[in-house]
Design a protein that fits this description.
Strand content: 35-45%
Number of helices: 3
Largest sheet: 4 strands, antiparallel
Oligomer: single chain
Distance between the termini: 53 Å
Radius of gyration: 19 Å
Order of helices and strands: EEEEEEEHHH
Length: 113
């Protein structure tokens, strides 16, 4: 991610691997056909030039379950110049457990028992 500090106008960059990206479910809802969940995480950063602290908020709305419906990134006291691809990281990490849980059975092996 590349951001410009509002205090000193300095450009800063941070690798996605340097962010914790420990998303929490902010809320969930039932829609007309399925349920959905809003996930979010706030990362604390500081300018490498002047030391000014800032917070970046990353959010993902999942609706229906398993589908990326919307995502948003915002930062206070700075301007985002280049946003990281945190959505792919979220789906790879957060839903890894669910992929195993919902693994489809091998129907051919069941039929041939």
């Amino acid at each position: 991610m590349v951001f410009k500090c509002a205090n000193c106008q300095g450009r800063n960059s941070i690798y996605i691997s340097e962010l914790s990206l420990n998303f929490d479910a902010v809320n969930s809802h039932e829609g007309a056909m399925r349920s959905g969940t809003h996930y979010g995480v706030i990362e604390e950063l500081s300018c490498g030039n002047c030391g000014e602290d800032c917070s970046v908020t990353l959010e993902i709305w999942e609706y229906p379950i398993g589908a990326d419906n919307q995502n948003e990134i915002s930062i206070d006291k700075s301007e985002i110049i280049e946003a990281p691809d945190y959505v792919e990281n979220f789906w790879n990490q957060y839903h890894r457990v669910w992929d195993d849980y919902y693994e489809e059975p091998d129907l051919d092996s069941i039929r041939n028992r």
